[in-house]
Amino acid sequence: MLARFNRNTYLMIMISIQVGGLWAAHFKMKHMRARPGQVYPSLNPMIPTPRHPSYPSGHAIQAFLTKMTVGTAVPAMFDALHNLAERIAVNRERARVHYPSDTQASRDCVEAVYRVLTRVEGFAEISAAVTEEFRGIERLGIVPDSRHSRK
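Now predict its structure.
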């Protein structure tokens, strides 16, 4: 049997990815920072080096913004989403396609981006619908205990 599809949660994640991607693209074009492997070719990045600029990290802002949008709507998931967002961000550094400061810039700006997003018409309704989709999740015991999550 397939799990129930949480349409509003999917929509919230897609909003986070799109808004985060647009935010990152704007600042990437503004700063035009070369990737680590472009500056130091001997680093041999573990994945193909993206052709767009490095700063800030787009994957990081998308992950951090998803943590904020879904985690605020479903507080029981916030710590698990935080840990996942950090892993996504840091793994891009480990793959040698981002500098730590790329990740930090995204981390530093996520709350401001989230505040703007919360003022968009319809956002509060989607957030409430996400909360409703996960009503009672704490009782199911399926949300990872953040004390035992990998950092």
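Helices lie at 7-31, 36-39, 58-73, 78-94, 100-118, 123-133, 137-140.
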